[in-house]
Amino acid sequence: MGERSSRADPPDPNDLLPPPEPVHLLDPDGTLHEDPDHPVDLDDDQLRLLYRHMVVTRRVDREAINLQRQGQLGVYASLLGQEAAQVGGAFALAEQDWVFPSYRELGAAVTRGVDTGKLLHLFRGTWLSDHDPYEHQFALYAIPIGTQALHATGFAMGARLDDNPIVTMAYFGDGATSEGDPHEAMTFAGVFKAPVVFFVQNNQWAISVPLDRQTAAPTLAHKAVGYGMPGYHCDGNDVLATYAVTRRAVERARSGEGPAFIEALTYRMEAHTTSDDPTRYRTKEEEEEAGKTDPIARYRRFLTNEGLLDDDVEEQVEAEAKAEATRMRDEIYEAPHGDPMELFEHVYVDDTGHFERQKVQLAAELAAAGEVEG
Amino acid sequence: MSTTTLAQAINRGLHDAMGADDRVLMFGEDVGALGGVFRVTDRLQEAYGSDRVYDTPLAESGILGTAIGLAMYGMRPVCEMQFDGFAYPAFEQFTSHLAKMRNRSRGRVTLPVTVRIPFGGGIGAVEHHSESPETYWAHTAGLKVVSPATVADGYAMTRAAIAADDPIVVLEPKRRYWMKDDVDLPVTTEPLHKAVVRRPGDDVTVVAYGPMVRTAMEAAAAGEDEGWSLEVIDLRSLSPIDTDTLVASVQKTGRMIVVHEAAQTLGIGSEIAARVQQEAFYHLEAPILRATGFDTPYPPAMLESFFLPDVDRILDRVEESLSY
Fold this sequence. Notes:
heterodimer; A: alpha/beta; five-stranded parallel beta sheet; 14 helices; B: alpha/beta; seven-stranded mixed beta sheet; five-stranded mixed beta sheet; 12 helices; about 20% strand
């Protein structure tokens, strides 16, 4: 950090350009094509764990949509269809690595072991977030688009300064690549060789706006060249390809070679959020076509072909998915808001001088309301 | 005693803070080899190396956004926005994240970030280099905002801001960077968020902060010729505001003028007037008046003397107050 990148020795753009085709290892029928550049260095248990995380994610995601329909969540942003991109990416991280998510990263959260019930308090409105970021190295959901890319970069700069072998991963979407903050984040990361991986889930839609309104670039992965980092792309509905590509980027970053950019091609099969109406901007035919590349179905075929998925494993995964969804539901269902006085509690470490009168006012209002109710 | 400028005092404060805690980092545009466009970070890179004192790309949101990430990691970042008018690209990181992260996380994430911003006019600069945007930061829950007006406070408030665990915006009065005082450093002063009576008086309280404290002191000296005894309060902290000190003063004088370069409408003076009239209504002999910049964009350099509050504008308000 602090050193100037040597303009006498700028990178060769050919070393940074994405390969002509996105990396793809699993065919829709589950056939695996091995690629020596992208080895799948996973044992059978890990291969099954990938499946488990995707199934749990989809189950919790569906439960969250149900909870919204029942009025238990104010709104919810589904990741349906993006399970492989999120799980495959997060699975490539080591325990000490950090995830900086947007607001649609349930699959990454499940992979990191984050309590999904705590995570979804955001959408119920009991509090703005309720998981401890330092417990699973999973930062708070960031709603302003792309802003978390800078936090991931700063965190990685700090780790590099300490010679601490942490890699950070910023998740964002295709829409976010148009924002200023990811641009500044990638500029900083390139200049300071920060160990950060920018992981873009290109799900083709930013609410109602398709990719061709976000960019005129050949692919999003090509943008990486402008920041002096390699651009990779992969079939984001192929969990093994996503894992292998991310693994390569993460280990490259950990070894001190700097940041990388990954474009995982996927599709947002659900609406943007439960408040959205996709029938106004895309066709049923398009959705059905995209649904044919369902990441979980494809991976299930692979595991079955390999003899890694029998009825016992399926049952166990189903039981875990149901248990996690139930746990989330129990946490969220009719969860009451906390003490209104907590509004003042966390704004500052030291709030002297800020709220004294307003605290008194709210306490009086609460007391008066209590008397009326009592 | 030795003669020190405000810029030198802040520089020494940064130097000593970095010496006291190796988690303190200093970064921004041109803060390294150049030592900052105002030389406030002069020789810090020489002293602490380019890992801890570094130039960033020219990107203010990047400066603040990476400061947030660094703080989450465990560093104590001090970053510089080169000029008031160039802090705006970072506005989203200020308001959506720096200010809110601790509350959002239910207290689990603290961000001990110090943002230094040279602010205010009076230096004959081109557009965007003379603004007083303090209301934006002071209006934002989760930030604290301070402004040193004396050489001693330049040192002590810099140290206190860096030592504090909350995000703090330090507005440095750029037109006073070369102001001198006899101060031996290191020095400690009043607590960071306390207002200070710089000059006691009986007739009218004049509240100012940052660059306008000196102007208010000059007005008080000139007011003596008119037979007016002005009490000058250096607000020091714009968020939180030390209401008690203001109320105590107006209970004595019964009259108050608030002075700032920033535009009048929704300026800090509006908040002070509201608070003081609420808490000291029966002590007031006159409405609380304001000597401020106009509700116009900051003017071109050759017209700035007509925009900025000066001794005459302050004394006009004093006279008006005394006429009630």
